[in-house]
Amino acid sequence: MLHRRSPLLALALASVVALGSAFACGRAPSDVPALGDAGAPIDPVLLAFLSRAKSAHHIADQHEEAGELEKAIEPLESLVKGPLPAGAAADAPEVREVTADTLARLADLKSQLGRFEAAEKDLSRGLDLARETTYFRGHLFEVRGLVEERMSRAEKDKGNTQAAEDAKKRALDAFEKSMSIQAEVIEKATRLEGGP
Amino acid sequence: MSRDSERPLDPGELLPEEREEELARALRAAFAPGELDAAVNEALIAAALEDPLAPPTEEEVAESARLRDALAGEGEHPALELARALSSAHTPRELTSASADRALSRALPSRGGPRRGNVIFVSFGAATLAAVAIAASWFLFVRPVLDSENRASLAQQAEDLAVSRSTASMFSEKFEPGATTARVDRIALARSRELRSNRYALWGVR
Predict the structure, then answer these.
(1) A92-109 pLDDT, tens per residue?
(2) In this structure, how many other beta carbons lie within 10 angstroms of the beta carbon of residue B184?
């Protein structure tokens, strides 16, 4: 009898141990953070956009090197007009920053072709996307300065002295704003690194 | 494992001891994977790094189709039994009373000896009660704890994943005119590496 009862005793003990362990170690599932709380991990949709951006800029490079500025604008325009990522990646900082940088380049190219109004629209859109104090925002103001300088020269060539002076003043303002942002970025980086 | 040891079992036939042990090891590993040997881990990463996103070969496609059909009850596949056993070990289905009785009668078979009257009945009854208690504790307490630990582990994995964020910290100097392509290249490269790391993390090979 003893021999037959031993495994039964073991089974009964095991059940008691299992129950005890369950009570001792049990945690309510609600204690565990949900997966969605962890943020938006890098996903293939974001990568697809970045890959598209990369290709667009390389194509633009080739046309720009060949002096074909209109053709250089096409792939970049196509990038900023979409399709843009949807869902979690729609508001990804990378998408906003790369789009803003692309808009700065578009403004630069368009202003070289004398399309100053279109260039300013691109810059305004870029500044809406790059609101934080970063080199992206500083660069947009720098390009705005270049655009206004070109506009000033164009107006001067046309004999519009006052318009040329106004554009020159706006260029100076933009360059100063750019310098101020760049200085702020440097200061912020220095503070983060624990420097003076 | 020899060919003979791979033959399907006859109804009521028990696994040979060595096969039982081997199966138990595989099931334990599937249910609660242990630490991966560092050398094996390196080998897996090296193999995966060769081209983790490569399309499957024709042979892989054909084999996976055969296994899928076999799992759906159409045809045979050498990996069928193992796939089912691992799937059951990883995500056990609820135990029905009929299958519990069947498992119990196989685990405690009648040896065909003389009836032992009430003593045997009481012993068998106690065994059933103990098994039911274990099963109940499993479903009521142990499995929820394991499930929550799985969720905790998944949440930890999610916390470890690289997330979308500003790229501003990648640039320590003001942007040079005419260098937009280089910046976009740099951003795309950094994020593509992070996406690959995320995939490895989710596969549990990091």
Answers:
(1) 999 999 999 999 999 999
(2) 25
Q: Which two tokens stand for residue A195?
A: 């420097």
Q: Do B163 and A46 touch (CB under 8 A)?
A: no
- Contact across the interface for B188 and A60, Cβ inside 8 Å: no
At A134-182, the pLDDT tens digits run 999 999 999 999 999 999 999 999 999 999 999 999 999 999 999 999 9
Taking CB atoms and an 8 Å limit, are A57 and B184 in contact across chains? Answer: yes
Q: CA-CA distance, B85 to B14, in Å (whole number)?
A: 16
This complex has an ipTM of: 0.75
Domain ranges of chain A: 42-192
Do B163 and A41 form a contact (C-beta atoms < 8 A)?
Answer: yes
* Pairwise CA distance, residues B66 & A98, whole Å: 45
Helix (H) or strand (E) holding A178: helix A161-192
The Cβ of residue A164 has, within 10 Å, a number of other Cβ atoms equal to: 18
Q: Please, is A144 exposed, middle or buried when counting C-beta atoms within 10 Å of its C-beta (0-12, 13-18, 19+)?
A: buried
A42-192 is classed CATH 3.40.350.10: no
Range of weakest confidence among A40-44, A55-59, A116-120 = A40-44
DSSP B163: B
Say how far apart CA A105 and CA A140 lie, in whole Å: 9
Query: What is the nearest CA distance from B111 to chain A, expressed in angstroms?
Result: 14
User: What's phi and psi for A188, nearest 5 deg?
Assistant: -60, -45
A41 three-class SS: strand
Report CA-CA distances (Å) from A14 to A3, A20, A160, B107: 18, 10, 95, 17
Specify whether the backbone of A143 is left (phi greater than 0), alpha (psi in -120 to 50) or beta.
alpha
Q: Whole-prediction pTM value?
A: 0.55
For residues B100 and B139, what is the distance between their CA atoms, to the nearest angstrom? 14
Which candidate, B57, B44, B131, places its Cα nearest to that of B95?
Answer: B131
Residues of chain B contacting A53 with CB distance shorter than 8 Å: 184, 188
